[in-house]
Specification:
With 57 residues, the chain is α+β, with helices and mostly antiparallel strands. It has one domain: Alpha-Beta Plaits (2-Layer Sandwich), CATH 3.30.70.20. Helices cover 18% and strands 25% of the residues. The chain is built from two helices and four strands; from the N terminus they run E-H-E-E-H-E. The strands form two sheets. It has a two-stranded antiparallel ribbon. A two-stranded antiparallel ribbon has the order 2-3. Strand 2 and strand 3 form a beta hairpin. The longest helix has 5 residues. The protein is globular.
Amino acid sequence: MVAIIDPEKCTGCESCVDVCPSAAIEMKEGIAVVDADLCVDCESCVDECPAEAIRME
């Protein structure tokens, strides 16, 4: 599984970037983007996202 970010819901708050233990999330044009190769499926970003813009797939 990998974290998937809904760009329609992402507010660009960067909470997920700060909590990601593998540095798999970066901001691009104000939207969080996940590098699937670095994602370790920990779901920390899902729990942290105040906009509920992240799901595991």
